[in-house]
Each structure stands twice: as C-alpha cells, then as structure tokens.
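Possible regression after last week's pipeline update?

I re-ran a chain I had predicted before the update to compare outputs. Posting the input and the new output here so someone can diff against the archived version. Not blocking, just want to make sure nothing changed silently.
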Amino acid sequence: MKFRGNRKQVLALNTFVKLVRCTNTVSYHVHKHLQNELTVSQFGILEALVHLGPMSQKELSEKILKSPGNITTIINNLEKAGLVTRILSMEDRRYYAIHLTEKGRELIERIFPVHAEILFNRMSVLTEQEQQTLGKLLKKLSIPEENDTGKGK
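New output (post-update):
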C-alpha cells in the first residue's frame, strides 16, 4: 500500500526513507571491518573512552545513544574480554568510572585508524562543501521541535 498523504507529507516520508537507507548503508560499510572483533556498540564505547577519557555508564549511554540497560550489558562483555574496567569513585561510592585497560587501548588504537580511513573514503564521494552542508542540515534535523506530538503542521 502506498502512502497517500498530501504532497508535503509524501516528500517528508520519502526523504526520511532515503535518510534511513543511507544511514544504514553507510553504517554497514563503515563498520563491516569490525565484525570479527567488536560490535558497533562496543566499538562506540571504546572509541568514546579513548578520545574523551573515563566516564560513567550514564555518560557513555548518552554519547553512543544506547539505553542504560543496554550499556550495562555491553560494558559487562567488554569487561569480560579485559578491554575495560569499572573503578569506584572515592568521592561518590555510587559512581563507577569506566576506564580502558591497556588491552582495550591497544585494540582501539589499532582499529580506529582503519575505521577513520574507511569513513574518509566513504565520505569522499561528497565535496568538502557538500559535507559541510550535509552536516548543517543533519544538525538542524536533529534539534527536537517543541511540538513533536505527532500532529502535522
């Protein structure tokens, strides 16, 4: 069944479908090299820790856009693999900071340059100006509207 909204609704739906398809395709190709070593979420956590330093599970869940419950499972698996460790804060005994282990740092420092090169190659189909424009458009699209109620404009 084809959606039969007005012209603006059909355009919005078609644009959204293209955005999702593009995101899924690019993500698949950019992350394919990880499949034998890490999940995309595990990579995201290690990448955040190597570039931003230790942080709490809550902060990590916000950085990689995963639920706190999901983050717990991912961190448990990374900890079992010896890639991260939880360290209890001396100031606040309710707070654990997630730290990279030496093994985790070595892994992400080996994998990240490959990842960055793949990402660079994938994005190079766009000119620098197109990348800047796309970045601005995506940022604009990412800002939640006050009236995100499901009601059309």
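Follow-up from reviewer: compared with the archived run. The radius of gyration is 19 Å. Marking as no regression found.
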